[in-house]
Amino acid sequence: MSDKEFYHFNPETLSFEKKKISIKDILKKVVWFAASALSFSVLVLWISFYLFDSPKEKMLQRENNELKQALKSVNRRLDVMNTMLLDIEERDDEVYRTIFETDPMPRAVKFSSLYKQTKYDELNSTEAALLLNEIRGKSDLLTLRLAEESRSLDTVMELAQSQSEMLAAIPAIRPLKNMYRITSGFGNRYHPILKTLRPHTGIDIAAPKGTPVYATADGVVSYEAAGSGYGITVILNHGYSYQTVYGHLSKKVVKVGQKVKRGQIIGYVGNTGLSMGSHLHYEVIKGGKYVNPVHYFFSDITPEEYDEILKSSQEVNQALS
Fold first, then answer.
1. Dihedral (CA of 249, 254, 255, 260) sign
2. How many domains are contained in the chain?
């Protein structure tokens, strides 16, 4: 095939001159054009895929964010469950087993299976996968601990069924009916006068003057005095190394040496002694040591009511006496 002839205008000679364009020149231009078009297409595709999200990608990203938020919410709930289980374990070890004069189950034995944690190697290192891995681990531990705790409480139940007399001596009910909150709890609380943190050996329950106060277990009215600052006070000896103290009463309706039954009225709420308002100061003493009375509320209370009382008792605030 012969080269094609083309004319082009020469501005220097002011005339048209012949110019031959070879097939090679045409191929060069075609190749250059094709390469430019390909480069432009690649650039457009790169911008489309890497700089701008498609509607489907945006939807997937939104769903992924929602999933991560849901996983975080579940993770937080597991932490709450863990806190509640820790309280059950504490009551089992320090209250129930102490009540029945049996040693707590050693933690290393009780939860030996917890040290064999499962790893989920199939998960990658994305944020959602890491959250899911953490949730799986926590749920496995909670499941194992609940199983072990259930077994431990079965033992406590067997002890309880064989010791009914001792159960009657345990301060197991609330000293005031319809009591759902603790004004000031057990432990370090601010002294109402000195305004410094000091040990609070019982709990304060605010109530109107004249509210009936009930014996929390069977017992005998003690000859002992509660000490200065308690005002009109009733102390009950329950046997099995238990005592309860009811302070700041407006009046008492039992006499020293009198036998009382759980649920019997022993006095009425007041504001006597060193008191900053009408309330009952209630103490539980086990083996000569002050213990948290809240841990003994289990005979006349629902789980929801107990959780509310426990929560209010943990607030570090000012005691009323």
1. negative
2. 3
214-230 as b/e: b if 16+ CB within 10 A? bbbbbbbbbeeebeeeb
Q: What is the pTM of this model?
A: 0.52
Token pair 């709930």: residue: 77
The answer to whether 176 and 205 have CB atoms below 8 angstroms apart is: yes
Residue ending a domain, among 95, 129, 162, is 162
In a domain, 179, yes or no: no
Task: Provide the domain limits for residue 105.
Answer: 79-162
Q: Per residue in 266-319, pLDDT tens?
A: 999 999 988 888 999 999 999 999 998 988 888 777 788 878 887 877 776 655
Q: How far apart are CA 210 and CA 177, in angstroms?
A: 13
**Least confident piece of the model among 62-66, 201-205, 241-245:** 62-66
Q: Last residue of some domain: 129, 162, 195?
A: 162
Residue 2's pLDDT band, with cuts at 50, 70 and 90, is very low
Dihedral sign, Cα of residue 208, residue 212, residue 218, residue 223:
positive
